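Changelog-linked ticket: NDP example.
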Amino acid sequence: MSGRLQNKIAIITGAGRGIGAAIARAFAAEGANVVVAEMDEVTGTAVASEIGGLFCRCDVTVQLDVDRTIHETLDRFGRIDILVNNAGVNVFHRPHEMPRSEWARCMALDLEACWAMSEAVLPDMRSRRAGVILNIASTHGFKIIPHTFPYPVAKHGLIGLTRSLGIEYAAESIRVNAIAPGYIDTEIARDYWAGFDDPAAERQRAENLHPPGRIGQPEEVAMTAVFLASDEASFINAETITIDGGRSALFHD
Ligand code: NDP
């Protein structure tokens, strides 16, 4: 199947690599015009030129960048059909050892920026009574792994944001959903394993935690994003879809 997002205008944050880049490629393959809203000019430009999209240099934690991205998108395409809040960072500490600045860094990117981007696209979506917002949350959004504070606090909040906005704007035909990936094979995960004495063993441990005996691939998240952003998901709202090979359904004995 192709053309499931034909002529849709989609902004994807952090689309220079990892899950965001996979979503950008999948959206473009389905006919969308993609705006790569990425902080890193090199990776952002590369993905945008590969898929024929528009690169907007955007640090989503900076309001001026957010406003410029929306402005450039509307200037070029005249509307915004889809926003994917994907940019995010792992901030992992034991709570009592965490410098306060780390709390702020995590909340600014993993939660507040998602609201800032949503707030910025809402006027256009509301005026046309149409739109889709998709938040890339995490299984940390409803389960806790010790020593990963405050990342799960932000991701719980992001699921709360998803449900709040989904309910608030449902009557205006704006759908707001989230995806909660488990372990996905991207740089963020590889950086995490690199912090262990034996990164390969830690990766293997992560693979073994999942019932299929492997972690996920960014493309597997991207195909769910295509579905949720498309009209096929027209009655799915304020919902979070988990992509973790069943790990969070597993009862450890
Ligand atoms: P990556 O670190 O591979 O990619 C994140 C991208 O976001 C990078 O291109 C990064 O740019 C960009 N970015 C970082 N900060 C900003 C910013 N302030 N403004 C704009 N762009 C920014 O991460 P993943 O692809 O793995 O993760 C994507 C999302 O998925 C995140 O929200 C993450 O929390 C979530 N997730 C990931 C999981 C995983 O196992 N990989 C599991 C569950 C959820 P730069 O290269 O410059 O840093």
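Closing comment: Example verified and attached. The helical segments are 18-29, 41-51, 63-77, 100-128, 151-168, 187-194, 199-208, 218-229. The domain at 9-184+217-244 is CATH 3.40.50.720 (Rossmann fold).
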